[in-house]
Amino acid sequence: LFLSLLWLQARPFYEQLFQRSYSPTAFVLSNIKANLPILLPWLILSLAFDLLARLPWPAFQEMLNSFWGDILLFILFVFFLVLFFPPLVRRLWNCTPVEAGPLRTEIEDFCRSQDFYPKIFYWPLFEGRVLTAGIMGIIPGFRYLLITPALAAVLDREELQSVLAHEIGHVRKFHLVLYILLFIGFSILAGVLTEPLPHLLLNSDWFFRLLIWTELPGDGLLTFLSTVPMLLLILLYFRFLFGYFIRNFERQADLHVFKAQGTSIPLIRSFEKIAAMSGNIRDQKNWHHFGIGERIDYLERCERDRSQIQRHDRKVYSSLALYFILVCAALASSFFLDFSSDFSSKGIKPELRYNRIILQQKVQEEPENSIWWTQLGHILVESRMEEQAIAAYEEALQRPPLQPMAANNMAWLLLTAEDRSLRDNERALQLARSAAASIKTGGVYDTLATALWANAQIHEAILVEEEAARLDPHNAKNQAYYQEQIKTFRTSRWQSK
Q1: pLDDT (tens digit, 9 = 90+) per residue, 260-269?
Q2: Do 408 and 431 form a contact (C-beta atoms < 8 A)?
């Protein structure tokens, strides 16, 4: 929507520049269609994943969330890119076949001489007035050679062949496949970074000091601090690493003219024309291509010394080898490292520390809501902060809505606290009775039975524990626990537990 507002503001200038008239709606739609291919693969992949996740098959859902599920999604993604993406983009961009005539015959003859058989289309980029060409599609039957009408009009026969040789060079050097692998490499690196980052943040004291000092919502701060490195990774990866490869791929494609035509002179003439007719951009730098002047200079050096061609190929292939070694190492690290268990803080899981601070913020924001006090009590118990947990449960019991589980958990804590000075068997029995009156589950009845046993009411404890077993008949592990409890009640005193 934001881009649509920008396009609407740009419409009058576009119409003036290209002498075309568009309605606001048609102009915005044309720009959406032009830019949609950037997002379309990810949108379709996300849609496919969401639809698969809705299928009511538990075994399939388990597989989908496993390593093999990731492989399945990757196969779907590649299948879409290879088969459906090129023809879909061609239609979105309104590309039309180059009509029969001298131009089409000339292109077909040259492509045939290179054992190359693409489908040939006009590319109406900016009304077809941009001087450029492109190749799209990995599989030959779904491969499209795109050329703008303006470029076809200004180049002579040899110059046009040199541009075609450049595009064929991309195919011969497998650049289209490598682009996909570079995107996959980014996904792997982003995944490897994403997994340990929250653990690193939650394990750092400065994060919690910042959380307390700023009084910001904890989930928002964690998301922000986790997102910033990802944004930096995107910037650095695509601006520098991906930019490095794409520039050198373009240079490899330029050098293919030596194999196709034996010389780079026609391509140099093409570049000079394009630079002059595009607003004297010969010396303009470009992050994803070398500047036109740089490309011309390198071609001229290769004219004088053809060994530069092999030297550049070795540079590209050694860079790719190093890149894939690093990506594989990053991928291997994600399999062998368990970040959730490797990071800890003072023997307490950092997630508990984080949740405790978040809930402390919640009880400050809504002190009359018993839900937050109850959840804070649970976290404090897990954090072995027993006295604070009892205080939190006390607050929960004094506020609406009624929290029977607060009573149940506090009763258990009063029975089993490591700090024996906190134990209170009589209060625990009162709380356990209150919880059991509202919640009839095996766990709650077990708490009541234990409280009865602690207060020397052995017969009642056994009856309640038997009821707990009847309330939870399908869990074999729990059934064994209940039977062990009954045996303990009959043979032991509370103090000996």
Answers
A1: 999 999 999 9
A2: yes
